[in-house]
Amino acid sequence: MSPGIVENNPSVVGSIAAWQSILNGCGYNPPLIITGLMDNETVTTSKKFQKDLALSVTGTVTLPTWKAGLDHAKEKGWSPVTPPIFIDQILQLAPKPTANYLAAFTNTQATLTRYEISNTPLRVAHFIAQVMHECGGLTIEFENLNYSATRLPQVWPGRFEPTGLLDPKEFAGKPQKLANEVYGGRMGNTDSEDGYKYRGRGLLQLTGKYSYKDATRILRKTNPLAPDFVVDPDEVVSAAWCLEIAASEWKEKGCNALADNDDIDAITKKINGGLIGLPARKARAKKTKIIWL
After folding, report:
1. In whole angstroms, what is the distance from residue 290 CA to residue 293 CA?
2. Of 118, 157, 172, 216, which cross-links 112 as Cys (Cβ 3.0–4.6 Å)?
3. Going by C-beta distance under 8 Å and a sequence separation of 6 or more, which residues neighbour residue 270?
4. Within 10 Å of residue 66's Cβ, how many Cβ atoms?
């Protein structure tokens, strides 16, 4: 049985709640209370659904039943299905989140609804997959710039010996000095310490002063009270704002439409600026699709 399909498995709380939401979207009365439990009311309504669609009447959610629910709930006259997003689903993908990220994702549903990401299962799957990749499964808040002398020429071959001019030994184990060198004078960084001040942060690893300024501009479209992330860059990783930033940037860059087309290459270019890590992003998307599709 695939994860995300409820079939005599009452321990899968997120999946059962998702099925209850689908039945409610189909318009059955009385509407079910979203309990996350395969209670008698849910079994009875499931049987009604299966009978209406000439499926095997079991009261359990088989794969054909699940697929029929997703499809039928989109038909004319039926309410659209908004896939519920639960913290247990997030923890299935990221079992060791930082405290900030864990707190932020307890409010996933409201945030993703605000930016129209939760309108479809495919949008949710792609958004969560990209976020998980960028922040290492909710474990990375700040970019790790503590490189060894051996690793530096591999990451920045044009800057460090033997190809570049800089001696990697002078920057190894010195994150602040390294950031100011490799990020200084570009991406909006002008002051001598800007490279480190605006190093990669948050769910989408914003990098460079321009990115922090843009995040402020985008988020203030929906929330004028959002802080100025240029002035206070550490707010980018706070529980209050990290998910809001990621979701607002996603919508601003047109990723909802790209997700509707299941175009992970185009989404990755919008989020990353290139196709770095594409195979790993595709692998994460397969996992998120199992949960939400």
Report:
1. 6
2. 118
3. 253, 254, 255, 258
4. 20
Question: Which CATH fold would you assign to the domain 87-141+204-292?
Answer: Lysozyme (1.10.530)
What residue spans of 163-241 are helical by DSSP H?
Answer: 175-182, 194-197, 209-219
C-alpha 187/C-alpha 215 separation (Å) is: 14
The domain locations on the chain are: 13-72, 87-141+204-292, 152-197
The separation between the first and the last C-alpha atoms of the chain, rounded to the nearest angstrom, is: 14
Please state, in angstroms and rounded to a whole number, the distance separating the CA atoms of residues 222 and 114. Answer: 9
pLDDT digits (tens, 9 = 90+) for 104-118: 998 787 788 889 898
Provide the percentage of residues in the chain whose pLDDT is more than 70: 89
13-72 under CATH 1.10.101, yes or no: yes
Q: Is the pLDDT of residue 160 over 50?
A: yes
Q: Output the CA angle 131-136-142, nearest 5 degrees.
A: 95
DSSP assignment of 236-277, as one string? GGSTTTHHHHHHHHHHHTTHHHHHHTT-HHHHHHHHHSS-TT
Q: Do domains 13-72 and 87-141+204-292 have the same CATH topology?
A: no
